Structure formats: C-alpha cells, structure tokens
Amino acid sequence: MTFEWSAIWDALPSLLEGARMTVQITLLGLLGGTVIGFLSGVVTTYVKVPITTRSVLAAIAVLVVLWLVTHLGGWLADNWFASVPSVVWTLLQLLVLVAVVWRFARHLPKALSFLAQVYILIIRGTPIVVQVMFIYFALPLLAGWRIDAVMAAIFTLMINSGAYIAEIVRGALLSVPKGLKEAGEAMGLPFWKILAYIIGPVALRRMIPAMGNQCIISLKDSSLFIVIGVAELTRQGQEIIAANFRSVEIWGAVAVIYLILTGFIALTLRFIEHRTQIV
Predict the structure, then answer these.
(1) Cα(142)–Cα(25) distance, rounded to whole angstroms?
(2) What is the model's pTM?
C-alpha cells in the first residue's frame, strides 16, 4: 500500500471546514464554561455547605415542594384562571417567584453553593458522551426541548468544562494566602473588590496552566460529538474515508490538524505565562 498525498490535498477543504466547526464549538463551549465555572468556583469556595444526609434530604424536600407548587399553578391556570390572559398569568408567576426569592434571600447563597456542588459532582462523575446523548436524545422526551446537534454539542461542552473549571478556580482561590483577604477586609473593601483587585489577579496567574490543560482537553473532547452527527473534524475525516477508503492518509491529516490546534493553544499559554511572570 502506497501513501498518496493527493488524497490529503483533495480532502483538505472538507477537513479545514471540520476544523473550523471544531474551533467554533470549543470556543463557544469554553466561553460559557468559563462563566459557569468561575461563578460555581467562587460560590463553593466562600460559601461552605457540606453535602450531608440532612442537606440532601432538605434539598429533596424543597424540590418536591417546588414540583407541587408548579403543578398546582398549572392546574389553577387550566381551571380557575382559564379566562386570564397569558401575559397577566406569566407576570403573576414572576411576582410570586420574586417574592419567594426576596423572602428567602439570606438562604440563597447556601442554596447556590449546594446546587453548584451537586452540579460539579454529577458532571465530573459522568462521561461527556453520556451527557451529550442525554441532552440530544433524552431531554426532548423529558422536557420537550428539541435543539440541533451543534447547539447540543456547544451546551454539553459548556456544562462539562464548567464543572472542571469550577474546581480549577476553587483550587486557585484556596491557594491564595488568607492574609490578602484579611488585608482587604481591614481596609474596609467590599468582597467583590477584594476578589477583583486583590485575590483575583494572584489566583488568575496560578490557574493559567490548569486552564490551558482544560482548553486542550475540551478541544479533543469535541471529537466525541461524532455520536450525534456534528460535522466537526473527526466526522469529516470519517465521511471522507467512507468515500475514498484512504484511512492512513486521512486519519494522519486529522491527527496533524489536531496537533496544530493544540500546539497553538500550548504556545499561546506559554506566552501568557511568560508575560504574567509566573514563578
């Protein structure tokens, strides 16, 4: 068997289109995951709510109450308030929700911390393939939400990377000496200023290597979205091989493109580390 370079040149436009889709999914997924991970990491770091039997039972009780209230609202809307315009009914529901949040506002940080810990536990404990299959196939059956394959891939990468980024953020924040936080409090600064101007810059420098590793992992994990038919790089390579049967050449080209993308990420992070003078 001879190695045919012409097979790679003929397939290059399709492979580059797949690489473009891979980069798009990775960027959007990491952007959303960074926001989710940062918020989850900050909450779980500074709001201590251990996951115990008591807290789990309390959470289940709250969910049951919310489920009952939701179904009661639906029953009232279908029977007693059927003549009320939908806009008015929606506004009434929002007012009730705001009133409940306002009444239990002091418990909101603990509830968010508990939910963030459960979210991290579930996402880190299940494979990304299972997550994307659940979102793409099971979610429409359970909730009636139907999304296309690309959006399912982006959303899956978003929640998956967010769970790991949350732990990266938490580890970086915990590594910062407590004296910096105490110094900010002694100066009378609010917590968000302490986080943004004192703790944040130090933690950011320390999380750059781990964040770079997560970026590379997320880029490679995007190849698993082949299971729902997303036309990313691996899927394009598979379809080309099905047409010309040149697996050695095509998979070699796919591997080189992935290597170029991950190498670019690694070099960019090396540059950022050098500029921020990480020691």
Answers:
(1) 25
(2) 0.84
CB 235 within 8 A of CB 241: no
Q: How many angstroms separate the Cα of 49 from the Cα of each of 39, 46, 108, 132? A: 15, 9, 12, 29
Please give the Cα distance from 234 to 129 (Å, whole number). Answer: 15
Q: Where are the alpha helices (DSSP H) in 79-199?
A: 86-103, 108-124, 128-133, 139-143, 149-175, 178-186, 191-194
Distance from C-alpha of 22 to C-alpha of 226, rounded to nearest angstrom: 11
pLDDT tens digits, residue range 3-34? 777 788 888 899 999 999 999 999 999 999 99
Q: What tokens appear for 109 in the block?
A: 């940080």
Find the angle CA(256)-CA(261)-CA(266) to the nearest 5 degrees.
120
- Phi, psi at 107, each rounded to 5°: -95, -5
Question: In this structure, what DSSP letter does residue 225 have?
Answer: G
Model pLDDT for residues 179-223, shown as the tens digit of each residue? 888 888 888 888 888 988 889 888 988 898 899 899 999 999 999
Q: Is 85 helix (H, G, I), strand (E, B) or coil?
A: coil
Percentage with pLDDT > 90 across the chain: 37
What's the full length of the chain, in residues? 279
**What CATH code is assigned to 5-275?**
1.10.3720.10
**Rounded Cα gap, residues 175 and 77, in angstroms:** 52
CA–CA gap between residue 16 and residue 220 (Å, rounded): 16
Span 218-238, pLDDT tens digits: 999 999 999 888 888 899 998
Element (H, E) at 220: helix 200-221
